[in-house]
Amino acid sequence: MVEERVISELFKFTCLCNNLYLINNKFVTFLFTQLDMKKNVLRFIGTVACIFTFLSIAFAQNNDEAIEAKIDQLVKKMTLEEKIAMLHANSIFNTGGVARLGIPGLSMDDGPLGIREELSPGGGWSPANLTTDSATFFPNGSAIAATWNPEMAKRYGVAIGEEARARNKDILLAPAFNIARTPLCGRTYEYYSEDPFLNAQLAVAAVKGIQSQHVAACVKHFVLNNQETERGRVNVEVSERALREIYLPAFKASIKEGNAWTIMSAYNKVRGNYCSENPYLLNTILKGEWGFTGIVISDWGGTHSTVEAANNGLDVEMGSRPPYENYYFAKPLLDSVRAGKVTEKTIDEKVRRIIWVIYKTALSSNRPKGLLNTSAHSKTVYDIASESIVLLKNEKHLLPLHTAGIKSIAVIGDNATRTNHLGGFGAGVKARYEITPLQGLQNALRNKVQITFAQGYRARKVNPGNRNVDLNLPDSSLIQEAVNTAKNSDVAILFIGGNRDYESEGRDRKDLSLPFGEQSLVDAVTAVNANTIVVIIGGAPYDLNKIKKNNHTIVWSWYNGSEGGNALANVLTGKVNPSGKLPFTFPVALDESPAHYLNTFPGDSLTATYKEGILVGYRWYDTKNIAPLYPFGYGLSYTTFKYSSLHTTRKSYKPGETITVTLNVRNAGKMDGKETVQLYIGKRGSVVERADKELKAFKKVMVQAGKEVSVSLSIPVNSLAYYDEKRSQWVVEPGDYQLMAGTSSKDIEVTASINMIGGK
Ligand code: BGC
């Protein structure tokens, strides 16, 4: 029997090496049944398997070695000028190649919401106005995070990777997943969440999905780009512990587990050095500790030196302002090599990395052709959007809409008809189509209910040159029109919130208030229609205090892509049971959120000192006993879930082991639904400051009405470690840990405790 197992394992390994796992598994089964397990036959198979395994490994190694050898030969043949041409942009999204040696340049594109349109060959950001470059608009980062479903991030990655491939891009400038440190950050909607573990799970899945299409993911922005105010000049001071525990984990996971081939350095400085020339971040941590073998690309115009950047880890300088031959990594770099300030060895190392990425992408064998705007991509968008929408309040059970008894619906608010694919600088995409909320409702309720639209408010454009213009003034005539429409309808659905101009790269919001006089609109409509539903569309927290207090039915939605309107309508009408959970805390007041409470946003004299340390997001609110408006992880369903029987397989664990946790989740309502089980762990009586609880595992499960499922979660003990600054190492403390499972970070349903032995 042992022999059988050995042979079987050998075969599995062999097959893995050859990507023939399934075929060979069948082969093994076939052999076992046919050959009656005779010892000498087994020996024969064993020998064949050993040879096969050896050859496979040798082949894989040879393949890598062959590529390395090819890279060696190419680099040897290149002139210094040719090498330098590969290290900088020669147009907004391209770098140079070496045609005489068959080395193509790299073609890149944004990300993360879709493959942006082609730019005019004349230079600058003006569009080429082609008819062939529209693309699928994918849900924004915080929407993907709200699904709490890595499978959705993977599907996003595969689909957007296919589109990047179809548009002939080698590098997709996505995903973006800086931590949501302040609710005001203009790019919160592009980023994922306030939690490093949730970010890491999603980033790894997205990267793997993108790269499955032989397109390099470019994870961004490395690192601590948590505000847009003065992003090009601000210096971030952060403790080593917060850096390691909060801001780096998702980047580390995307490199070490996701195997991302490229990374974008952030605009800001960290501890005095720009991220694009930061030796600690790029050389010590990224390329040293994490063994990153891909390329570091600067953010656009984010390079500030030649010698420092070249020697401190940057590989490629990108930007949008010609003349490109004057870039730091163009003629000045050539001169610096000639002057002996940068060695040719350093240049060769960068070129080698670039060619390595080219072999993974443009020159890879079996490169798929890619797919653009397919119905499968629309379905992916629809599924992500459907799982991302968060039901915040449903006190009167007005939702799902009981359409049989409804004759008329007033659809009110600019956001009901606004599209969100364009805007926000880098993240804009020329969508082939985008279903608005109004269109979604019309699709869902056609011929059944009379729908009347009223604009309700005017969404004024932000004037970046004058941030003092009051965008919040209500428009009384639009409000009056909305009130009249609402009065004459059975149900009023308000679509308010932000938009892709109001939330944008390059600037932070001034405060959390709902813009454009939306609160006055909500008040006026709510006063005349008792069946008012408030739907907020946005990518970051807003002030919903008054709405939470006065309104009984509240739904949160996002910039949810080409199919966003259909998904939203299907949630409202009950075809989809909402299962989204908030990826960040909504504070009651801005000054209760950590960076603002400690007055460290946007920084003083261009230095932002992250005084809150590790207490970011719910870690802060929980530990300081500050009640949030809506907690991290919160989201209701049309059914209810009951948790029970949380237990671990053992009571004591040691570093290096894995904790297996199981619990039961029962759907106590009448509708099938998905629930995200969140497992938090807290260390009691620690020698260092600890957050009350930290997310360590989660799983989204479908539970049929009236049924119960058993959910099992695995937590590596080492993930309970804190970073010890004095010893510069991760430490798993001995003692008691509390396990808390719940429907949000605040709604803990079941608990257990374990004891750690043998830690440091
Ligand atoms: C953004 C990047 C983006 C790049 C190219 C920069 O301003 O920070 O995220 O990829 O522009 O559009």
Question: Explain this structure to me?
Answer:
With 760 residues, this protein is of the alpha/beta class. It contains 21 helices and 27 strands. It is globular. Bound molecules: beta-D-glucopyranose (BGC).
List the helices and strands and how they pair.
Blueprint: H1 2-18, H2 21-34, H3 39-77, H4 80-85, E1 89-91, E2 94-95, E3 108-109, H5 141-147, H6 150-166, E4 171-172, H7 196-211, E5 216-222, E6 235-237, H8 240-247, H9 249-256, E7 262-265, E8 269-270, E9 273-274, H10 279-289, E10 295-298, H11 307-311, H12 331-338, H13 344-360, H14 375-388, E11 390-394, E12 408-412, H15 437-445, E13 450-454, H16 476-487, E14 491-497, H17 518-528, E15 532-537, H18 545-550, E16 553-557, H19 564-573, H20 594-597, E17 607-609, H21 618-623, E18 641-648, E19 652-653, E20 658-667, E21 673-683, E22 694-703, E23 708-716, E24 722-724, E25 729-731, E26 735-742, E27 748-756
Parallel strand pairs: 3-4, 4-5, 5-7, 6-8, 6-17, 7-10, 12-13, 12-14, 14-15, 15-16, 19-27
Antiparallel strand pairs: 1-2, 8-9, 11-16, 18-20, 20-23, 21-22, 21-26, 24-25, 26-27
Helix pairs in contact: 1-2, 1-3, 3-13, 5-14, 6-7, 6-14, 7-9, 14-19, 15-19, 16-17
Bound molecules: beta-D-glucopyranose.
The site of beta-D-glucopyranose has 8 residues, from loops.
